[in-house]
Write a structure and sequence with these properties.
The chain is 97% helix and 0% strand. It has 93 residues and is mostly helical. The longest helix is centred in the middle third of the chain and has 90 residues, at 2-91. It comes from Blastococcus brunescens. This is ATPase.
Length: 93
């Protein structure tokens, strides 16, 4: 009878340990899942921000290049007019 009581006590102790370990594992998995979800959410935010930054940078670069090309066009037009005037002057008797 004492042996039976001891076995029953050991079984109950093991049961309590197993339940405690299961609860701890459950909490660990929940924490990992929350960390994973948070990481995915943050990665999505960073990806969207990087995309927006790239689009803004591209627009700024396009605007800068267009401005420089417009300046170059103006310079070439002035040069062309100068060349035309010089040629006209050379043709005059």
């Amino acid at each position: 009878m004492a042996h039976r009581e001891a076995l029953l006590g050991d079984a109950q102790a093991q049961h309590a340990q197993i339940i405690a370990a299961a609860h701890a594992e459950h909490e660990r998995l929940i924490t990992e899942t929350e960390v994973y979800r948070g990481a995915v959410s943050r990665a999505d935010e960073l990806g969207a921000q990087a995309h927006a930054d790239a689009a803004r940078t591209r627009a700024e670069v396009d605007q800068y290049v267009d401005s420089r090309l417009a300046d170059f066009e103006t310079t070439l037009e002035h040069m062309l007019l100068s060349v035309e005037k010089a040629r006209t002057t050379l043709r005059e008797p």
